[in-house]
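User: I'm putting together a teaching handout on how multi-component assemblies are represented. Below are the sequence lines for each component of a complex, exactly as they appear in our records. Could you produce the 3D structure of the whole assembly as structure tokens, so the students can see both representations side by side? Please keep the chain order the same as the input.
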Amino acid sequence: MSTPKQLKVANKDAVRGLGIKLLIGLPISGLFWTIIFYFFVSNESWNFKILLFFSIFGIFLGGGSIINFAFGSSVYQLWHKLISLIDSIIVWLFLPFFYYLVFFPYSLALRLTGKSKFNQKKIKTSSYWREIDNSKNNKRYLQQF
Amino acid sequence: MILGISAYYHDSAAALVAEGSIIAAAQEERFTRIKHDYNFPVHAINYCLREANISLNDLDQIVFYEKPLLKFDRLLETYIGFAPKGLKSFVHAMPQWLKQKLHLPREIKKNLPDRWNKPIVFTSHHESHAASAFFPSPFEEAAILTMDGVGEWDTATVGVGERNRIQLLKSMHFPDSLGLLYSAFTYFCGFRVNSGEYKLMGLAPYGNPVFKDLILDTLIDLKEDGSFSLNLDYFNYCQGLTMTNDKFANLFGGPPRKSESVITDREINLASSIQAVTEEIVLRMARFTRDLSQKENLCISGGVALNCVANGKLLNEKIFKNIWIQPASGDAGGALGCALFTHYQLMENNRIPSPHDSMEGSFLGPKFENNEIRSFLDKNQIPNHFYSSEKELLKIICQFISKGKIIGWFQGRMEFGPRALGGRSIIGDARNSEMQTKMNLSIKFRESFRPFAPSILEEETSHFFDLDSPSPYMLLVAPIKNEIRRELTNEEKKAMKDSNLLARVKIDRSSIPAVTHVDYSARVQSVTEERNGRYYRLIREFRNSFKSPILVNTSFNVRGEPIVCTPQDAYRCFVSTDMDVLVLENFVLLKTEQPDESFKEKEKYISSFDLD
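Assistant: Of course. Below is the structure of the complete assembly, with chains in the same order as your input.
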């Protein structure tokens, strides 16, 4: 069962916050890539076009978002779509890997040894009620388990 | 003062308890206007603090209604039990757990309106339900029965409550769950899980329980004590994104009904059958609870406790002398339960039960004064009539009702829980034959087969219904008295077999047709002056002037919309539907006087809510 889908709504603070992040973050990213290129790709000269490109992009998106809310909302929505896409890619790459390589063998082992809670043969019983252990102390209420 | 929170599954809510009194409680959906909103209830928390006129620092404890790591344990064990099946469900569920639910103290503190440096208290899901059932009840001691979909591992529990303590004694574990069994049929019949269960219950009386034996023989191993084990070969909820699988479909003659498609006899009979099975299980569980607890009072909570037909049968069987059902029995009520549990059981405060109960009629939400409403009306230049005298106001409203008008009734504090009890209600004359169809199709925009509930003066209940117990929270279904029933003609009996449910609905079965379901039953709300104040006086005035102590009462919303909270919400709903009159405290608004531009957003408004 899934919970109902809810969309992220852009409000002025959130849009402005993203604008500031882009305005500062993109030039810093540009500087980072300029350094990377200098040391790992071309070790003869600095290529400041990378920094310039990122900075212009940052000023355009970030500054635009701060000045104009409508523009900022569109950037905000696009930004979240991009995050969501990256998120989905990571999730679909990592979790199936984990599920098949960790969960499945463990599940198989449990089933083969008859220890899985869900695959045990039903024992003939007159009741499915279970006793509740009430012996624990009140400290358990500060724990999440 | 203790703040209880429920969140991150469905129907998130907050509740504030001070010295054992419930100061405020509200569901987040009412503020965000997103039905069953599961997000952190920041608006509901802010409201609770505002209502008590305190800040977060004034609180003694903040309590969360379940134990997230135990729930995660159940989730992992389930996936391990079914791997390699279940990948899709795993990939859907895990991100939210990894990012949010596994770090609940951090998430809660991050979302609170102020800094909170004390630890967060975590009660278990069914402890919260049990506490919400027992502590506000009028009983010094009682047996407790909780039944829902699933909490951490528990799906049903039996316990006892004595003075300021509850103790859970027995439980049933996931995946064997009455709530999930009912939800599986809800899904299969084409309704939405966690919200369409009411529809299935409303559909049940149209059919015959022809599949009951098949369900009992194939899907479930039911014991005499009400405990059971489900045959997981037919279900998909452990490992999939659906509730049932192909084997289930083969058993019941085809695939699940598509949402919004025609309802056939199969779905009608399935609804009837699963309702009959549910009642059987509830009755057996109740008998077991009585035998185990040796108490004469019963308190019930959990989502299944909202099945008012089963509640009615339980009352009728007289297994217990008295029954009290928590009106916010779903997960929202968990917020209240965990706060009460902390106040009484963990902080060891004395408990003195109120003679009726301590739910304040479930009117625990925001209230809007006349001056606030006046500012709203003036600001938006909305034509209105102000009645300073309540007597005059009630007289004019009763006249409207007697003329078949449909009234939006907004007064006092908003209800906590899924039912509108006269605070945020749409009301009409129960004697009017057209009322049910009109309200369903042009006010609520919902399925024509769904019944409406009567609000009746408590002292008049026994004249109209076979019900010898108060039903203040609309949680009991009772048969209508033989004296007011109408014998169907042969033609009408033939029409009762019509595949079109609207044709069946239109047949008058009693002198109060708008609230008489096809099986001559009604989901009764008994109204008292003490609990319901002006709403009681309205019905009394209607009785005195027009000889009927009953009104139709349905929640003030359209399909898919949360019940209205503010005067703005109420006005938007009023102008977007065929309601004739809106009463906002002492202000009366007539549809005919509203400016044309008010109606421009009608289509947009109605389509803004996802169908539930």
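A couple of points students might notice: The two ends of chain A are 23 Å apart (CA to CA). Strands of chain A lie at 130-131.
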